[in-house]
Amino acid sequence: MTSRFTELTIDCHDPERLAAFWCAVLDFEVIDRHEGKVEIGSWKPTVEQVVARQMPPTLLFIQVPEGRAGKNRLHLDLSPIDGGTDEEVTRLLGLGAVRRDVGQGQGRSWVVMADPEGNEFCVLRTLAVTRQG
After folding, report:
1. Residue 94, CB-side half-sphere exposure with 13 Å CA sphere
2. Separation of alpha carbons 88 and 109, rounded Å
3. Taking the model in full, what pTM does it have?
4. Nearest to 113 by CA among 84, 81, 88
5. Given the DSSP bridges, would you call strands 98-99 and 76-78 parallel, antiparallel or unpaired?
6. 49-83 per-position pLDDT tens digit
7. Distance CA 18, CA 74 (A)
8. Which of 12, 70, 83, 133 has the most CB atoms at less than 10 Å from its CB?
9. Among residues 30, 38, 41, which one has the least CA distance to residue 6?
10. CA nearest 24: which of 103, 96, 123?
């Protein structure tokens, strides 16, 4: 007996806004929406595909009344594939992300950022160089 990691759920105030931000960041699309919920992904899951093998999880944004309390205990790590890390950070700033200091110090190989609702995520080293060679 086993389970599959099918979705990551993120509590938020504005599911539509956060889903739009993450769709732009990850090149995902909205695959389902109901009142107070928006699910995005790179594919539309079917039961048969999920049962057959582990597939990329979707992101599900659910509206909640309370605000975020404290530092995230779980966050996303992003690896740019089309350009350098600095260029990706600039792109994400343009989409509404902000830089965040969580005590990581200077000279790290990653950049800590936050989405429009303050959820931290990291931009790691670029994979673009790896793909070229």
Report:
1. 8
2. 14
3. 0.87
4. 88
5. unpaired
6. 888 888 899 999 999 998 877 777 889 999 999 98
7. 17
8. 12
9. 41
10. 96
